[in-house]
Specification:
Elements: H1 2-17, H2 48-84, H3 86-101, H4 104-115, H5 119-146, H6 149-157, H7 166-170, H8 175-198, H9 210-216, H10 220-228, H11 233-237
Helix pairs in contact: 1-2, 2-3, 2-5, 2-8, 3-5, 4-5, 5-8, 8-9
Length: 238
């Protein structure tokens, strides 16, 4: 919890204390850590500490927005399908099976390659893909809860039925497993956003993102290793 709270605080209030702007070049390429830049600079002289702070807000924010949207879609469709059944269940379940049969990363690459990698498209793409897993869980929970006697009795006592308000009748009784699933799906979406950015189709420059920062600074170690070792005189003469 201490680690999670630290990351959340960094994402929320960290940019207020960042020493520089996230796209501001303030030093030499691959500059070593100093009193002005505690973690050094990246490949174009931007402060690494500043980029990490802004990257926390971007990566965690997109993962949170994606998870919330995926749960809204998955829970709504899953509970509705569980209550209505019939052809609605067949159509939506077969559609979800088709989406799940395609590898998640490949499907995201196709969609983002066609519609671009803007942040709204990125959030919507990951949310729709991830909502299929939430749909299956919500559908299974809804089908088990909707047939319970006390749920139907409560619905009739309020002069309605479970079909009238599926989320309102079923959601309170399914909250515990859904909350647990929310935590897992947030972690998976966090890694998925970072993976897409590492491949170059996620968060685009000049915005900072942890996955994109790994890709951009992959050559930093080799550059610093070469700079530490001077060329022997015999090789330089050759």
């Amino acid at each position: 919890m201490v680690i999670v709270v630290f990351y959340l605080l960094t994402a929320l209030i960290g940019p207020w204390f960042a020493p520089y702007g996230q796209s501001q070049s303030v030093g030499d390429t691959w500059a070593t850590p100093s009193s002005q830049m505690l973690l050094g600079a990246d490949q174009i002289g931007r402060d690494m500490l500043t980029r990490l702070i802004y990257g926390a807000r971007m990566t965690i924010g997109i993962a949170a927005a994606t998870t919330l949207l995926s749960f809204f879609i998955g829970i709504t469709l899953g509970f509705t399908t569980a209550v209505l059944g019939s052809w609605v269940d067949i159509v939506l379940s077969r559609l979800v099976d088709v989406i799940l049969s395609i590898p998640q990363l490949i499907l995201a690459l196709i969609i983002l390659g066609v519609f671009g990698s803007s942040i709204p498209v990125l959030i919507l793409t990951i949310a729709v893909i991830d909502s299929t897993k939430v749909f299956r869980l919500a559908r299974a929970l809804g089908m088990n809860i909707a047939v319970l006697d006390y749920v139907e009795s409560c619905a009739h006592a309020r002069r309605g039925s479970v079909v009238d308000h599926p989320c309102g009748r079923i959601l309170p009784n399914a909250s515990a497993p859904l909350i647990s699933e929310f935590g897992l799906r947030f972690c998976f979406n966090f890694l998925f956003v970072a993976a897409l950015s590492f491949l170059g189709i996620g968060v685009q420059p000049p915005y900072a993102d942890w996955g994109g920062m790994v890709r951009e600074n992959a050559g930093g170690d080799q550059f610093r290793d070469c700079s530490r070792h001077s060329i022997p005189p015999s090789l330089s003469r050759r």
